[in-house]
Amino acid sequence: MSNPSDDILSRLQQSAQKGATDASESNAHDGSPFTQTRPIPPLDKWNPEHCGDMDLTIRANGEWWHEGGRMTRQKMVDLFSSVLWTEEVDGQTQYFLKTPVEKIGIQVEDAPLIAVEAEEIEYQGKLYIELKTENGDYVVASEDHPIVMRKYAGEMRPYVLVRGGLWALIHRNTFFHLVGMGELTTTKNTTLLELKSGDASFVLEQKG
After folding, report:
1. Which has the closest alpha carbon to 94: 166, 11, 158?
2. Distance between terminal CA atoms of the chain?
3. Are 163 and 139 in contact (CB under 8 A)?
4. pTM
5. What is the per-residue pLDDT across 172-190, written as a single tens digit (0 to 9) for each?
6. 3-state SS, residue 86
């Protein structure tokens, strides 16, 4: 007898694959660095009913766990991350895997994505900070995609807004790379890092 949760994963995989194919066929690239990203299905145009929750958790270190076992197939994780969806429900952030026909609730301990690369790119005479997630999302830091610090488990951690309310934790090694792109100001109890990306500026504060 098949596991109902496995059946859900199989349906989600099929729908996500079709969505990725449709998004790829409609994706236009104008040659600028701001369109360098993987195709993402039009999740905002899909309005399925909430079909319940499943035992799937994205842990604070970015690992995906399903029914107590780690999902190790990176291609599947990348696929499912392309249909991640978030909503504010009664003041609480909730996460789902969303397809045209179903919306399944999942658990996220911290941020659903992890930024693992950062580099400066030049475009039309200005320098921008581009970050890449481990799932293949590219995002250029801007007012619409800010870099911020916030606390998790008693520790201040850096994040960047990728898309549709989905944040990526900036990996420690990647953050060290970002430090080299910015300007540090240190006082007795506070360290400020100013990062500039195009016309946007971000000041990250670390105390202690």
Report:
1. 166
2. 56
3. yes
4. 0.87
5. 999 999 999 999 988 878 8
6. strand
Whether the Cβ atoms of residue 186 and residue 204 lie closer than 8 Å to each other: no
- Residue 104, amino acid: I
Q: Which residue has the tokens 């950062």?
A: 118
What is the C-alpha to C-alpha distance for residues 131 and 160, in angstroms, rounded to an integer? 8
How many of the other CB atoms lie within 10 Å of CB of 7? 10
Q: Give the Cα separation of 129 and 194 in Å (integer).
A: 12
CA distance 201 to 162: 17
pLDDT single digits (tens) 3-16: 555 666 777 777 66
Instruction: Please give the sequence-ordered ranges of beta strands (E in DSSP) within 124-199, or none if there are none.
Output: 126-133, 138-140, 147-152, 155-163, 166-170, 183-186, 190-197
Among 27-41, 49-63, 192-206, where is mean pLDDT lowest?
27-41
Q: What is the edge-to-edge ordering of all strands in the sheet holding 92-98?
A: 69-70, 64-66, 50-58, 103-108, 92-98, 84-89
DSSP H or E stretch at residue 21: helix 4-26
Report in angstroms the alpha-carbon separations of 123 from 28, 126, 136, 198: 18, 5, 21, 9
